[in-house]
Design goal:
Elements (H helix, E strand, L loop, with lengths): L3 E3 L32 E7 L7 H14 L3 E7 L3 H17 L2 E6 L1 H14 L2 E6 L5 H5 L6 H10 L1 E10 L2 E3 L2 E5 H16 L3 H14 L4 E7 L2 E7 L1 E5 L2 H7 L1 H6 L5 E6 L4 H12 L9 E6 L1 E5 L4 E6 L2 E6 L2 E14 L6
Parallel strand pairs: 2-3, 2-4, 4-5
Antiparallel strand pairs: 1-13, 6-7, 6-17, 8-11, 8-15, 9-10, 9-14, 11-12, 12-13, 14-17, 15-16
Length: about 350
């Protein structure tokens, strides 16, 4: 296990190994192009981001048709029926050696990825969410037509994913202040629409409202860290991490997670943190403790904690166990020359 403490003198650390441009989603293996004319099933979230479902479906359908793909589109809304339909589609794809495509935001992609990991089925992505961190980290176009063409012209790669207990995460998992932030964001979005500016405004309001500190014990390797904190934020996505702190992004190894533990803060301290976040230099702030690892556990006096997993709030039983599953997901990425 690798553990590195990264605080005020982070810049003095040397990179553990040369970084690949693909980022923290994991080591990429060299694989052949997708098999000729695979059976493609597109699971389309009709409520993703601010997307018009009819226009989104038409764009995807036209792109796949022009590429000569054999496909079907299943338009669904999130919920138990979506999960069951997705599971059946994944099982059929395993039988047919087909390709399951998640067309939607990070929540939709997370749901489909979990099933594809469970059954080792190849997955494609057509992003249609607000931020699309996972897709962008894999260099998948955010334009639906371009992303659809990647499904036919791209390559299969294996990438690593994160888990909290038995739940997968592709971008981040967090609890404390971030949970309140997401709850408030969803309330605001339900009133004013699912737009990026709405999400940013809701986040700022939540940050200034603050969070009552709580006690936790972090078990990292042979170390036990007793902390009072307002938030613990864990990310395994290089693009998102580079937006928070470019130095941490450079130092965190492939197949690793960066962990931010926020100490109790005042509103003035929060202003400083926001400013450092804008400047992508969070790790040097005295109110944040940062380390990277491939596995750690969190103990709490609470029996359960609300955790934000790739933008969705889920209730997790304690203790919380975070880990990296190496090269667990087969995903279609743009073809590139392997020198």
């Amino acid at each position: 296990m690798h553990v590195k403490r990264m605080q005020a003198k982070l810049w003095q650390l040397k990179p553990l190994r040369p970084r690949k441009p693909t980022g923290m989603t994991g080591s990429f293996s060299r694989q052949p192009r997708i098999s000729e004319n695979p059976a493609i099933t597109v699971l389309l979230n009709a409520r993703a981001g601010d997307t018009n479902a009819a226009a989104f479906r038409k764009e995807v359908t036209e792109a796949l048709t022009s590429a000569g793909a054999s496909f079907k589109v299943m338009e669904m809304t999130p919920g138990s029926k979506f999960l069951e339909a997705a599971r059946q589609s994944v099982l059929q794809a395993k039988t047919d050696d087909g390709l399951i495509v998640a067309a939607g935001g990070d929540g939709t992609i997370n749901t489909v990825a979990a099933l594809c990991c469970e059954h080792d089925v190849k997955m494609g992505i057509i992003p249609a969410g607000t931020f699309n961190y996972f897709a962008r980290d894999l260099s998948i176009p955010t334009n639906a037509a371009d992303a659809a063409r990647v499904l036919v012209e791209g390559k299969i790669e294996r990438v690593s994913v994160g888990y909290i207990n038995d739940r997968i995460f592709l971008n981040n998992a967090s609890f404390g202040l971030y949970s309140k932030l997401i709850q408030h964001r969803e309330e605001v979005k339900s009133r004013f629409g699912r737009f990026r500016i709405v999400a940013v405004f809701a986040a700022l309001v939540s940050l200034f409202r603050g969070q009552k500190p709580f006690a936790i014990a972090l078990h990292v390797g042979k170390e036990t860290l007793l902390r009072r904190t307002c938030m613990v934020f864990v990310t395994n996505n290089l693009m998102q991490l580079s937006h928070l702190d470019k130095d941490v992004a450079e130092q965190t190894p492939e197949d690793g997670m960066a962990v931010f533990v926020m100490r109790p803060t005042t509103r003035l301290d929060m202003c400083r943190l926001i400013l450092r976040g804008v400047m992508r230099n969070l790790a040097s702030d005295s109110h944040l403790e940062t380390f990277c690892t491939d596995r750690f556990d969190v103990e709490s006096r609470r029996s359960g904690i609300d955790v934000v997993v790739d933008g969705e709030i889920v209730r997790c039983r304690t203790p919380l166990s975070f880990r990296v599953a190496r090269r667990a997901l087969q995903v279609v990425v743009p073809a590139r020359d392997d020198a």
